Amino acid sequence: MKKISIxxxxxxxxxxxxxxxxxxxxxxxxxxKIADKTYEVHLTATITGNWHLYAQGTGDGxxxxxxxxxxxxxxxxGKAKEVGKMKKAFDKNFNAELKYYEQTVDFVQKVKVRSAAxxxxxxxxxxxxxxxxQCLPPKDVPFSINVGGK
Length: 150
Prior knowledge:
The protein is mainly beta. The chain has one helix and eleven strands. It has a single domain (about 25-150), classed as Immunoglobulin-like (Sandwich), CATH 2.60.40.1250.
């Protein structure tokens, strides 16, 4: 019985470690009311280990792209801003200077709700993460954030 318990624990630990390697970015989502019917929507990436997440629109290399699902109850104010410690480096693999974040970055989008009703900001984040040895394939992560109401 003891051997079975140890085997189960080892299998669970191996699965957790494998998941961390294949998914080094943990996303969290929130909304903060900043004025009447106006919100900041936060898409926060926590990046583990020595991985880094690329900025939006970095040019000739990998990028992070945020796509919002159209909603007639919402008006988006500009493009999502990046809040974090941006780094820039020339990457010989992409033959370009790339912008990226390590540890954490917060993508902040200002949204205005056109009515008093509660609605949902939906969309997806497409991103690439790399470390000094490899890049993982692009990944799409859907999100859904409630805004509006009383």
